[in-house]
Amino acid sequence: MNTEQVTLQSEITTAKLMNNEIRTKLNKMRDKVADFHQARQQVKENITSVEQAIKFERKEKAMQKYVLPNKPPTDKDLENKIIQLAKTKYETWRDIETIAQELGVRAGVVYLTLKHHSFIRQTETSDYRVVDAYYRCNKNLGLIAEEVGFSVWVCAKILEKHSLSPNWQTYKNRANSLSVGDIGEELFRKLVPEAVDMNVFVGENNPRFDFIVNEKTIDVKTARKNREGTHKFRIRYQKGDEIPDYFCLFVASDEKEIKQNNYAILLIPKEAIPAEITTLPLPQKGSLKSKYAVYWDFEVPPDSVSSMLGII
Q: Strand 216-223 relative to strand 196-197: parallel, antiparallel, unpaired?
């Protein structure tokens, strides 16, 4: 089988995987984006007071602050080097990795630079959306699938068609190193699907916070119960760090309880936590021996977390 036949077979396989359910999901995503921009324009046009104008401007600034910038690096020297190499070496998406390795930078930096300078043609095709997510999501297949709304198999076939590795290793790494904190973040994604995941836009282990909901920053914390029956949540930030607006604490004895949905959630505003503490030792509910038992006042039912974050 020659190269053209392999490519054709790959495209046929991809087409078969792109079933009606995926197409419907894609159309819904496009409709949501269109509705968002339409509603945003209507709000802008209906501003009738200074207070409304200030509120709208704050929202605009928040979006600019947290959404991944679709622009090249601020290092102009690096930007020029990427452009010069691209003029002689860039032909297809697979060349992005070559340029990145030669300059010793992440492939995503090269991709955004070439995209900004029109080396890469932006389209509404499934191929473009998957490859775009591939570089913005640090080649993490699970995040890519979540970002574009396709199954991992569809994403993998599209990447392979363009000689890009699906990087199945990310699943193996995640399975081998899944921590109790990862489980908490995964639960939060399911409970609050509208949340902006900073692991997608910034990369994993963002030191400041994990999610944005209703313009509020959320740091998700999960802790096992120790021998004394206490859950110790690390609330530690370096000097100058921006403290998240809310801490979402998942409380359970161990990972097994969390997986069985046997857990409690505390949603605590940053103002309620003393600035000097680095660990919050949460005792068992109803305990009279610890001053930190008062934080159980912030307990929120799991099925109410999304609505609560929508109104605060």
A: unpaired
